[in-house]
Design goal:
Elements lengths: L14 E3 L5 E3 L4 E5 L4 H12 L5 E5 L4 H5 L3 E4 L5 H8 L2 E6 L11 H21 L4 E5 L23 H4 L3 H16 L6 E7 L1 E3 L10 H7 L10 E6 H14 L5 E4 L2 E4 H12 L10 H17 L8 H6 L9 H7 L6 H17 L6
Parallel strand pairs: 3-4, 3-6, 4-5, 6-7, 7-8, 8-11, 9-10
Antiparallel strand pairs: 1-2, 10-12
């Protein structure tokens, strides 16, 4: 197993002279993590604690008990509330901005725009006004790395495929989030670094924000093999990359993060080998797959039931979400672990927490 270990640079404590020549120690600058209770955020917070980062503050809508157990200060509030954001950034020197929501549904478009775009604008303005020097922000590889045919391997210089990503509110909101951050957190001695991870897998996804595809596979809700392909990466390795980016990331740059570019056929075959759960064998034409999923979804919603698979997810799976992580490897030392290990740990976590221990084969 290969992981990136980042040595954080600890600045000497700042001091100021008192009258009479005595020296008083200033308060130690705070490290803030927004969205620190989510899938990626929880891994990052625990790594920062293990690395001895103090004082450490997390901003979240609610504070779970494990934050207090780790000795982490919690600020409860919303990233979309100006007063809450102002409280959160007080005394802060650096920010890991991970707050947001993942949804494929059109009905959540307004909420995601408010969180990702309006919330990021508020954070950047408050951070700039209160002397924050560095922000490392979480975006998604979907703002850059997606093609309709799988030809080419997008890197950070790839043009934003607006004709594709604008179909889904989540990706559209993240495109605008990046633009807002670059516009509102710039100036002398300010540094903004954007990380663009692909699908996050691994243990610890309590809300199934990223790993639901594995649960759906184990529950045999996926009945056909999509035509497209995906990129995925371990959330623990991405958390390491965030720490590396805070130390060495270049201002105004984006870094794509992925560990494997696989067709869905290969992805399901690997899951079948790990879990002994039969993979789907049927491959439907794109138009039929999308239209069929939309009809099924509409029927389920008519009866106020959750559809087995979300129609937008089926449409997305007809595209290729491949990427090139060379820049992150060269500049941040990004070295993701073996994808097989990530899949095994994801399956183990999903089975233990969502299917029960009896699901083990």
């Amino acid at each position: 197993m290969a992981t990136t270990k980042t040595k954080r640079r600890k600045a000497p404590a700042k001091t100021k002279a008192k009258k009479g020549g005595s020296i008083a120690r200033r308060a130690q600058p705070v490290t803030l993590v927004t969205g620190g209770t989510g899938f990626l955020g929880a891994h990052l917070v625990r790594q920062l604690v293990a690395d001895g980062v103090k004082p450490l503050r997390v901003m979240a809508t609610s504070a779970p008990a494990w934050l207090e157990e780790l000795g982490v200060e919690a600020v409860e509030g919303s990233i979309t509330n100006r007063d809450d954001v102002a409280r959160a950034v007080e005394g802060v020197a650096e920010v890991y901005h991970l707050a947001g929501r993942v949804s494929r549904e059109d009905e959540n478009a307004h909420e995601m725009y408010k969180l990702h775009v309006d919330g990021t604008r508020l954070l950047c303005e408050a951070a700039r006004e209160r002397g924050v020097r560095s922000i490392v922000m979480a975006s998604t590889s979907g703002t850059i790395a997606v093609t309709s045919d799988g030809e080419g391997l997008p890197n950070e210089e790839w043009p934003t495929p607006l004709d594709i990503v604008s179909r889904w509110p989540y990706y559209a909101s993240k495109v605008y989030q990046e633009r807002v951050a670059l516009e509102h957190f710039q100036g002398r001695d300010l540094r903004l670094v954007i990380l663009n991870p692909s699908l996050l897998l691994g243990p610890g996804d309590e809300r199934l924000s990223s790993t639901k595809v594995v649960l759906d596979f184990l529950a045999r809700k996926i009945n056909a093999v999509p035509k497209g392909g995906l990129s995925f990466v371990d959330a623990r390795d991405v958390a390491e990359a965030f720490r590396a980016a805070m130390a060495d990331g270049r201002n105004g740059e984006r870094y794509l993060l992925g560990a494997a570019n696989w067709t869905f056929e290969k992805f399901f075959a690997r899951l079948e080998r790990l879990t002994k759960t039969p993979a789907p064998r049927i491959s439907l034409p794109t138009r039929l797959a999308v239209t069929g999923s939309q009809a099924i979804s509409a029927l389920y919603r008519h009866w106020k039931l959750s559809p087995p698979v979300e129609a937008p997810s089926v449409e997305m799976a007809e595209y290729f979400w491949y990427l090139d992580s060379s820049k992150a490897t060269e500049e941040l030392g990004f070295t993701p672990r073996d994808p097989q290990e990530t899949l095994l740990d994801t399956v183990t976590y999903v089975r233990e927490n969502f299917l029960g221990s009896d699901a083990f084969v």
